[in-house]
Each structure stands twice: as C-alpha cells, then as structure tokens.
C-alpha cells in the first residue's frame, strides 16, 4: 500500500487524480471531483482500478517534481539499464472532456516499461466492456465511456489493458485517457504534446499573476497552486479535498468524504486568494458563497456540493476494504445536516472581507446579510454540533459563540463603514452580551484558558482563533494562557490535535492524528502574541512534514510519522498561507490582526 504522502495531485479544475511515486494512478473521479471513482485502488487494491506506467523489472529509484509554477508532474525512474521520465497532467478543460495524459520520455539508456490499465467505474465495482479501436481501446460501463489513445499495440485480457515497450534515449510515447457520457459521440482526441504545451502555458500564466512576496514564498505559491487545483472552475467552489475516506486513524472508522465545499473554510479561502493577489478567484468564490448561503437562513448548511447541491446523503461502500483496512468507505457526508453556529460567522466574514476589498456593498446584497444576522439573533443561545462535526451531543461550544459574536461585529462594521440601514445599537448590545457570556462561561480562570464548551475542562484548538478574529487583543493574558494550555495539553511532539478524543464524547471510537490546520493556527496565534521566534520554529517544522512535492494531508500521526486523513487537504494549505502572512505581519511590525477577516476587538 502506497503511503498517503507518497501521492501527488494532478487535475483539470473540475476533477482530479492521485499519482503514486511508483507510477500508479490509484484514484481518479470524473467528470467532477465528487463523481464516482474509476480508479479506486487507493481504497482497495489494484482490482478496484488503477493505471500503472513504470519500469517493468529490476531495481527502481524514483524522483519527482512539479514543473515550476504548474501542476504538471514529472517522475524520473532510474534503473541499472537507464532513466525514463513519466510526465502526468490533466489539461484544463475548455469545452472538451476530462483527459488524463501521460507521456513517457527516454532520458538515458534503455528502460523496459510496462503499462497496466484497470478501469473500474463506480468506485472500483464495475468491469467495463473493452474493445479495440483504431487508436487504442474503448471501454464502456453504463453511463461511462473511456478511450485510451496511443500508437502502441495494446493487449486486452481479463478486463485489463496492457502494453510493453522500451523507453530509449530520445524516445517519446504518448497516452491519452478520455472520458465521456456513453450515450454521446466520442470526443476528438487532442495530441498529447500539444495539450502539454497548452497546460504548461496555462499554469505558468496563472501562477505568474501571483503577487505574494512575503516570507516562505515558495511554500505559499505551492499551496496556492494546490488550492487552485481543488477549485471547481464552473462555480468557483473550493473542495476540502479530492478524496474520500482516507483515515484520520489508520485502521479506524474516522473516514469521511471531503469532496465538498465547507463554509468553515470560506474566510480562510478568501484571505488566501487575496493574499496571493487572485482577486478574480476570490470574488468568484464569494459569489458561490452568496448563492448557496442566501434564502432562508435556517436552511444554511455547513457544506455544499461543487455546484451548490444540498443533498449529500451518506452511504457506505462495503465492496472496498478501505485504505490500510480503514473501513467503512463512505460517500456523501451526513454532517451536512448538522447545525453549526460558526458557519454564520464565516458567511458574514466573507461579506465583510469582500466589501472591505471592493470598498462598498452592493445594495442588493445587504438585505440578505441583514436577514441572516437577524436569524442569528434568535438562535445564538442554542447549543450546536460544533466546528468539528462531532457526532455526539449538542453543546454550547465556546468557538461557536465566538463566531456568533463575529456575525454582529462584522455586521456593525459594515453598516457603520458604508452607511447601511441597520439596528446598530441593538446589534451592539447583543455583541456585548455574547462577549460577556463567552468570557464568563467559556473561560476557566483557574487554568487561564478558554475551554471547548461552557463548563467543561476539555480544550479545543479552534479557540486559537480568538485573537485572529479579533474577539480579544492578541496579547491579552487570556489569549496567552489559551495558547500555552492548548500547546501543552493538545500538543503531540509539538503539533496540535483538534481536541482530546479520549476526554471528549464525539460519538466515535478511536482517536486521530494531529490536525495540521490547528497547528498552523498555533503559528498564527504565536506570531500575533509577539512570540515570532516560536512561531517561525513551529512553522518550519510543519513545512518539513510536506511531501516531496509540497503537499499536506489533513493530519499528521506523530506516533507513526505518517500523514493521515484526506489528501491533499485544502484546510492545511489555507492554514499554511494564513500562518505565513501572520509571520510576515509580525516581522514587519504590522498590526497583529492584519488579515481581511480580522478586526480589532471593540
């Protein structure tokens, strides 16, 4: 089984694939991020679908990289007989179908190569009907049709397509796998070399527009490219990850489908795009948010499909054994039906950030936001399910109340800044009431820390955001105490867990790794707290956890020294960008709360 961190991501801004260091594409969903996988070996075995191109035999060593500024993956395989390079990419779509292209270049000597293609649509469960075609093969299974185009002769046997060929110095072998709806006509096949040039130019043009010039620039640019790759181009939605059911605990049951857009990530997404100079992308994401989060505020969900779909019903796939026997494998996410108070703060936070960037509020949008704020006025005293989708009882989570405070704080600021009609005095009273309640019931004065929920002793790393959102000044003694308590009690080898799964009833057995986004929040909080050296030291340790092409999963298992959870994880890369920005602000002596969503406490 390939380690999670040994995969690299390629994609076309609507779908994605994971390629292992061994040359196997073990996961691909087409035509959308959340479509059924046609390669699902990641969550089972090779019979559940994969596409291998690698040296046929002998001792093999691989080294890989992305072409600078792009999502084009180059893997060099060195053998005693020579060196071969495999170039993997998915051209950004114009009006064409999703295509995965692989080019094998002979670099030195003579390397015998093998191609093994096992297509298994519907999450590795269906064996398609395969026929030879003039330029390769065509495979059909229900709604899905595929064409593998190549000049090489292909052998079809037992539902697998195979080829053997030599990569000699200067040789070039091209392979294109296309998908289309089986009831339609097969689309034309684009030349792989032409598509490679087009893809290279597209990505270099996009990354070249980036304006971030602060510390750790290479890591920030890599993260921005990863985030762009996880953006659904037709709508501007950003998925949490292109995978489902990669475990938070190897061998455990904490396996979730993350191929959706979380409102929890929305302000970080907007800030990251603005930090990188990608204003158009930020505004497209804002528009997606406004489409899905308007209407009846009581119906706002914590996550949506990439086109704004609301029904994300969860079911299991017993046919798949799970990554390293981590079952069940799930599709859909029942947490979409939870009540999480914090999402309202995210929605208003995005409205605030965009308005401050644009210098105004569209008059047609303000009534929508005002209606949402008024709804929160009626529900903020209720217990909720919390930011982490716990499947235990509802509680008065401290961070949820803090984000309710954000709703009124940003509403007040928007109304005052742009002269909007609003009951500002009433909102100020509510903001003050929430603030007093959180400081009284969510803070443990004896231990000098905010706790997970009212009256509890447990801690929660989400409270590291208290200074980031401006609820308290970054150097307030309560902030300092919370930083220290979370680092001491939730820290594992210096990295931070979301909360203690041993002490908190979250409705699930087992534990999980250290949550990387929370560890980056600790970096940001330390930098804002004036402890820049500590922030930089932790940040560089976190950077060292990235894989060889700069990608991060959701969590890190410090005991095993493994990345765990869905991969790559947008939340981790968003946290990285925010932390780099916080360090830059601290080093430059800028205001500690300098982010687009951040605001000084009242």
Tags for this model:
2 domains; 602 residues; 15-stranded antiparallel beta sheet; Beta-galactosidase, Chain A, domain 5; Glycosyltransferase
Q: What is the tally of helical segments?
A: 14
CATH architecture identity of the largest domain = Alpha/alpha barrel
Query: Any idea of the CATH topology of the largest domain?
Result: Glycosyltransferase
> How many strands appear in the DSSP assignment?
28
What is the percent of helical residues? 25-40%
Shape: globular
- Measured on Cα atoms, how large is the radius of gyration? 25 Å
Identify the CATH class of the largest domain.
Answer: Mainly Alpha
* Spatial gap, N to C terminus: 53 Å
Major β-sheet, in short? 15 strands, antiparallel
The helix/strand class is alpha+beta
What percentage of the residues does DSSP assign to strands (E)?
Answer: 15-25%
User: Low-confidence spans: pLDDT under 50, at least 5 residues?
Assistant: 592-602
Integer average pLDDT: 94
Count of domains? 2
């Amino acid at each position: 089984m390939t380690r999670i961190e040994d995969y690299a991501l390629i994609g076309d801004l609507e779908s994605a694939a994971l390629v292992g260091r061994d040359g196997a594409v073990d996961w691909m969903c087409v035509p959308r991020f959340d479509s059924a996988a046609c390669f699902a070996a990641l969550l089972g075995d090779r019979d559940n679908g994969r596409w291998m191109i690698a040296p046929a035999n002998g001792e093999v060593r691989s080294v890989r990289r992305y072409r600078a500024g792009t999502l084009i993956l180059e893997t060099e395989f060195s053998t005693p007989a020579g060196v071969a390079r495999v170039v993997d990419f998915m051209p950004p779509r114009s009006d064409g179908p999703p295509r995965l292209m692989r080019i094998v270049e002979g670099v030195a000597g003579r390397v015998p190569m093998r191609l093994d293609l096992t297509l298994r649509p519907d999450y590795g469960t269906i064996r398609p009907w395969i026929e030879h075609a003039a330029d390769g093969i065509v495979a059909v299974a229900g709604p899905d049709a595929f064409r593998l185009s190549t000049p090489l002769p292909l052998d079809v046997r037992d539902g697998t397509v195979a080829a053997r060929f030599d990569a000699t110095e200067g040789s070039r072998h091209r392979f294109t796998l296309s998908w289309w709806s089986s009831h339609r006509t097969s689309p034309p096949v684009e030349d792989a070399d032409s598509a490679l040039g087009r893809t290279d130019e597209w990505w270099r043009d996009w990354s070249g527009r980036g304006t971030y010039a602060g510390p750790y620039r290479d890591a920030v640019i890599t993260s921005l490219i990863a985030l762009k790759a996880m953006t659904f181009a037709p709508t501007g939605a950003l998925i949490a990850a292109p995978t489902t059911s990669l475990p938070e605990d190897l061998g455990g049951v904490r396996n979730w489908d993350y191929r959706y857009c979380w409102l929890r990530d929305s302000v970080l997404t907007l800030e990251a795009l603005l930090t990188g100079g990608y204003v158009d992308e930020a505004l497209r994401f804002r528009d997606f948010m406004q489409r899905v989060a308007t209407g009846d505020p009581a119906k706002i969900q914590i996550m949506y499909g990439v086109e704004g779909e609301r029904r994300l019903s969860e079911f299991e796939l017993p046919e798949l054994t799970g990554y390293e026997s981590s079952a069940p494998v799930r599709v859909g996410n029942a947490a979409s039906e939870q009540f999480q108070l914090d999402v309202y703060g995210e929605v208003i936070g995005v409205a605030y950030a965009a308005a401050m960037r644009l210098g105004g509020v569209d008059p047609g949008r303000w009534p929508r936001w005002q209606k949402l704020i008024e709804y929160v006025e009626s529900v903020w005293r209720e217990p909720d399910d919390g930011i982490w989708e716990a499947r235990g009882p509802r509680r008065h989570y401290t961070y949820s109340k803090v984000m309710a405070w954000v709703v009124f704080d940003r509403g007040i600021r928007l109304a005052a800044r742009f002269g909007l009609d609003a009951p500002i005095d009433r909102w100020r009273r509510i903001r003050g009431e929430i603030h007093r309640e959180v400081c009284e019931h969510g803070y443990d004065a004896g231990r000098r820390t905010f706790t997970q929920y009212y009256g509890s002793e447990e801690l929660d790393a989400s409270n590291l955001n208290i200074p980031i959102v401006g609820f308290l000044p970054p150097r307030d003694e309560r902030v300092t105490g919370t930083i220290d308590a979370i680092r001491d009690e939730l820290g594992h080898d210096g990295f931070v867990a979301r909360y203690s799964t041993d002490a908190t009833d979250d409705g699930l057995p087992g534990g999980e790794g250290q949550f990387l986004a929370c560890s980056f929040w600790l970096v940001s909080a330390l930098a804002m707290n004036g402890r820049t050296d500590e922030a930089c030291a932790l940040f560089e340790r976190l950077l060292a956890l990235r894989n060889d092409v700069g990608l991060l999963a959701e969590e890190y298992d410090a005991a095993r020294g493994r990345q765990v959870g869905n991969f790559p994880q947008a939340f981790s890369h968003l946290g990285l960008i925010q932390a780099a920005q916080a360090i830059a602000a601290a080093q430059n002596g800028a205001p500690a709360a300098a982010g687009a969503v951040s605001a000084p406490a009242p």
